[in-house]
Amino acid sequence: MGATRYREIAESLRHAIRTGTYPLGSRLPSESDLSARWEVSRGTVRQAVALLASEGLIGSRQGARRVVLRQERRQSFQQLNSFAQWAQAMGCEVASRILTRTVRTATDEEAGRLDAEPGSEVLYVLRLRWLDGEPVMVERTVYAGWVAPAVLELPEDCVSIMDSIAERADIVAHYGEHLIDAVAAGSEDARLLRVRRASPLLRQRHLTYTAAGRAIEWTDDRYRAGSVVFNVMNSAGAAPLERRAGPDVRG
Amino acid sequence: MGATRYREIAESLRHAIRTGTYPLGSRLPSESDLSARWEVSRGTVRQAVALLASEGLIGSRQGARRVVLRQERRQSFQQLNSFAQWAQAMGCEVASRILTRTVRTATDEEAGRLDAEPGSEVLYVLRLRWLDGEPVMVERTVYAGWVAPAVLELPEDCVSIMDSIAERADIVAHYGEHLIDAVAAGSEDARLLRVRRASPLLRQRHLTYTAAGRAIEWTDDRYRAGSVVFNVMNSAGAAPLERRAGPDVRG
DNA sequence: AAGTGGTCTAGACCACCAG
DNA sequence: TGGTGGTCTAGACCACTTC
């Protein structure tokens, strides 16, 4: 596995933050402190704290000690790509059930999204997800062929497929692209989510990649209106969000 | 400023990717290549490529050259905060009409969002916006009191209020926070957008700030389903988007 | 077998922050 | 003013990919 020195240090710091050794708002030991304590070079310490910074756990300013910003265990990137991780971090009771698992050949659109050969095999999964006992989301996912075996092994009430395949098959999500819009509930959506047909749903389609840029899955998640809100911060310096025309515009 | 060697290298690579010097799917030069070419150490090159990887532009696997994953440039912050700028960049014909302009006292929620005194005056604007001749968005904006005079001066068919007040009154947007969800069309929405009542709309509420952190406006934009899609990219290195519970969850 | 990225070391200088 | 993080160097060994 990825058992390296800097990951080890990061995990130790993560644990210390989580358990209150370094409380919210407190200052972390300096880089030289940590490198002496762990008997590693300063570069290795910096790799470790960079990992925590990318998880949003600590902040840093030149000249001042690093500060503990949050103590939750979950990363926001993971939370965006994993419904289960997000829900658990919110303190919600989460449940999932796989309703359908089918191996079939990819449609042209799916092959294009997953960057796979046209006509290659993919795994289609239909899944319903609950928050605090209420059905709130229907998930329709197409997994790339190389991921399918790992997903087929999982039990149908598996809470987090992404977590499970990361642990068991070392398939780790690293990058995601998300398309967010509103759609009317179809008859299957309506039945599963217990809403009226054509009632509003918030749709999040996303494509997930490994660090090497290999596509893992292409997903269409539909949330009952009112159950979730997506939140984006941006600035003149960095604009991660953009607006795109839907099919109705420029037809 | 932040003019460092590794940023400089990153920007040069970003440009080369964007302009096709390194096309989609092609391999980047090796680290040793780049360090020779730029006359920097390998560590500096690695800082540069790590930046691009966190933006999702390139992927990497141990042992193999880095690969170009995408070449699009993200749309600017201005385009996200200005419907008019976005539409024009898309090549769409855009039109706008202010239907209502009212000075009134802020509700408690509005005062809270705009970080203003409870009971202070704000300017409420109702506006309808067209793309290529079709009504696609209803905008309900509350402008902070200090911005109101500049907005009241504008003609009712002003295409971009943000652009106009930036030019005339030097009120410039710098940060934004966006909440995106789906709602059912109310009767006013339905009439203006020419859709059925309760049909799905994509809602983008956003709060806009100056560089100094002063709130400019709090807006509720509702798009006809199918007319726009929001697109967000994230990575393990940087996650600007998060999911939030709506009022239905954890009630 | 040669090339490449992942990890790590042991230094260095600078800009910035705190007391 | 001394400590701290940000940047950079010039090496090294290893795991992995590619040919």
UniProtKB/TrEMBL annotation, chains A, B:
The record ties this protein, via Gene3D superfamilies, to: Chorismate lyase-like, Winged helix-like DNA-binding domain superfamily/Winged helix DNA-binding domain
Q: Which InterPro entries match?
A: Bact_HTH_transcr_reg, Chorismate_lyase_/UTRA_dom_sf, Tscrpt_reg_HTH_GntR, UTRA, WH-like_DNA-bd_sf, WH_DNA-bd_sf
Q: Which UniProt keywords apply?
A: DNA-binding, Transcription, Transcription regulation
Query: Which PROSITE patterns does this entry report, sorted A to Z?
Result: HTH_GNTR
- Record-level Gene Ontology MF annotations: DNA binding; DNA-binding transcription factor activity
From the UniProt annotation, give the residues forming the signal peptide.
none
Pfam families, from UniProt?
GntR (PF00392), UTRA (PF07702)
**Taxonomically, which superkingdom?**
Bacteria
Q: What SMART domains does the annotation carry?
A: HTH_GNTR, UTRA
User: Residue limits of the HTH gntR-type domain?
Assistant: 3-71
Q: Specify whether Transcription is a keyword of the entry.
A: yes
What name goes with this protein?
Answer: GntR family transcriptional regulator
Source organism (scientific name): Streptomyces microflavus (Streptomyces lipmanii)
